[in-house]
Amino acid sequence: MTSRMREKRIRRAGLAAGLALTLATVAGCSSDGGDNDEPIDTGDQSSASPDAEGGEAEDEAALVALYEAYWDAVTASENAEELDARLFDGITTSSVMEQELSRIGTWKDVGGSREGAPVIENITVTVDGDTARIEACKNEADWRLIQDGEELEDGLPESLTVPHPNVVTAERTSGNWLINASLTTDEATISC
């Protein structure tokens, strides 16, 4: 680990928007068909560690906000009736946006959607220059799977209904951070 790389643990509890990348293998995921324009309550704002240096603290705070915005966009996309690529503007690279819209669109094509939101907590940010890694614990127990208007009682694997790691990476381009990849749970350095 370089001297510029510092890991800061940033904790927050409460509901946050979430993404279920592993749901690509679970049938019935996407929009609830509702017209929910209410913002998602992400709980108390996280703040960087008090001992972080000015620039690092600003980067960490910006990355926590980016991660929360990412989950807001994914949750809104999966819960909405129609896909809206604009939700990901300024949050993800075009390749991540396309990956998400493709995954979510597949579920919408078979009458699938989501309702509710996952719980995201224990956000960890690691910054190394213009790259970053963001990890958190995600619990999808309250983010229900809906298919053709009916809740799928046993639609989610049990492993998703308990806190489990979620990992993304981000890059700074032209002064702005964007999420540029989603990693597998196996690549997490945190445990939940």
What portion of the residues fall into strands of 2 or more residues? 25-35%
How many strands? 8
Give the helices and strands as they follow along the chain.
EHHEEEEEEE
* Stretches with pLDDT under 50, minimum 5 residues: 1-52
Question: What's the gyration radius in Å?
Answer: 16 Å
Helical percentage: 10-25%
Number of alpha- plus pi-helical segments = 2
Molecular shape:
globular
Task: Please describe the biggest sheet, giving its number of strands, its sense, and whether it closes into a barrel.
Answer: 5 strands, antiparallel
pLDDT averaged over residues? 77
Beginning-to-end CA distance, first to last residue: 23 Å
Estimated structural class: alpha+beta
| Spatial order of the strands forming the largest sheet | 1-3-4-7-8
What can you see in these coordinates?
The protein has 192 residues and is of the alpha+beta class. 39% of the residues are buried. The protein has helices at 54-79, 94-109, and strands spanning 6-9, 112-116, 119-128, 131-139, 143-147, 150-151, 164-173, 176-183. Strand 7 (164-173) and strand 8 form a beta hairpin. It is built from two helices and eight strands; from the N terminus they run E-H-H-E-E-E-E-E-E-E. A five-stranded antiparallel sheet has the order 1-3-4-7-8. The protein has a three-stranded antiparallel sheet with strand order 2-5-6.
